[in-house]
Each structure stands twice: as C-alpha cells, then as structure tokens.
Amino acid sequence: MSVQSDTFILSSRGWLLSGVLSALFLFFTMTGLHLFQFLFGALLLAVLIIFRNPERNTLQSEEQGIISSVDGVVLSIEETMVDEQKMTKLTIMNSLWDVSILRAPFDGSIEGFKIRRGASLPLYNPMADTLNEKAVLSFRSSKGDEIYIEHLSEQSCFPIGIEVEKSQKCKEGTRYGFLAKGRTIIYLPQDTRLSVNAGSSVRAGESVIGYLNAA
Asked: How many whole angstroms separate alpha carbon 84 and alpha carbon 210?
C-alpha cells in the first residue's frame, strides 16, 4: 500500500508493530503479569501515537499557497544559496509525538528525490548532518515553481520512509512519506512571501507557510 492511499487512522507502517504489541499486551493481561502488562501497554500506546494518520484539510486554500509538509515548530528562517540561486531556508523541528506523516506542499509533481540511509545521532552532534538518515525531494508546482525539502532523522528507531516515484503527480496534502522525529528544511524561492515566523507551530497538510511569487 502506498503512503498516499494509506488513509486508515493508523499508518500501514505501524500495523505489524502495533499488532505484535497488542498480542503481547493481551497475553500478559490474561496471565496476570501486571508489570509486563503495563510495559507493553505503554509501548502500544506510544506506537499508536507515533503512527497515527489523521485526515487533514487545508485551513486556508489559496492560489500559490505553500502548505507545510511536516508537523512541528519553525526553528529558523534565513537566506541561503542553492546552486547559485538565492533561496529562503525554513527549518522545522518535529518531535516524536507530532504526527509523522509527510505531505505534499502544493498541487504539482515530484521532480526527483534521494534517500541516504545512516545513523540517528542527536542533531547537536556535529556529525549528524553527515551521518544521519536523510531524504531530499524536489517539488515543482503546476505553474513551474520549484522548492526543495530535506528531511533529517534524529534519535529514532524508525527509518525515514519516502514512497513516491520520480515525476509523480501529487495534490496538495498528498501523503508521501514518514519522519518520526527530526529536522525538515524547506528551500523556497526568494520571491516567496512567508506567513510564519520563528517559533510558529505548523501542521502538515493544513498550515500555510507562504505564497509563491508574492514577495
């Protein structure tokens, strides 16, 4: 089952693990081993939270709007250079308890992507950028504007999941992947007018973070 068609309340990525934990929880409940019952009950609850897969609708659907791809808090906004092109760099941190499903920022297509498998070091470690799991995607809007999204995993036993194909068409809010915990950087064209600030909380598939060709 692809991510974009996975509309159950629990992501398909969590079915097997939650099934195993449910069976163990029931077993220890029936045998009266309360310590193990509590332990596996807590683990089951954590997995259900991490892999929850709610429906999301854009609260403010407008032409040229860019929707957040990830739940979390905006850490910083700064200008940077990408392939000799000046862009706005928007950094978002998501915790283990945020919704982990990644969503497309607008109607358009996925121009390309790559995944680097690796470690899961804390992001304050200077080697995290070099060694941690990373996924980089390029999205092109229906009007030709291109943005880049980089997901970097942090201290998570769940790998980054990207389930798309190159040149695949996508609708705004389409599910395209999974990031349990980490940092997301969204590179936007310089003429983007932002609608968030450092410290803003955003929700994937709902929160408008900016508008293309509006600066």
From this structure: 22
Beta strands in 56-133 (DSSP E): 65-67, 72-82, 85-94, 101-103, 108-116
A 10 A CB-CB count for 214 gives 14
**Residues 134/150, Cβ–Cβ less than 8 Å:** yes
Q: What is d(CA 116, CA 136) in angstroms, rounded to the nearest whole number?
A: 9
Number of domains in the chain: 2
Quick one: CA dihedral 50, 103, 207, 90, positive or negative? Answer: positive
Residue 30, domain extent: 3-50
User: What angle (nearest 5°) sits at the alpha carbon of residue 95, between those of residues 162 and 106?
Assistant: 45
Question: What does the pLDDT look like over 26-74, one tens digit per residue?
Answer: 999 999 899 999 999 999 999 999 999 998 876 555 678 899 999 999 9
> pTM value?
0.89
What are the backbone dihedrals phi and psi of residue 161, each rounded to the nearest 5 degrees, phi first?
-120, 125
List the CATH number of the domain containing 99: 2.70.70.10
Residues near 156 by beta carbon (within 8 Å), at least 6 away in sequence:
96, 120, 180, 181, 182
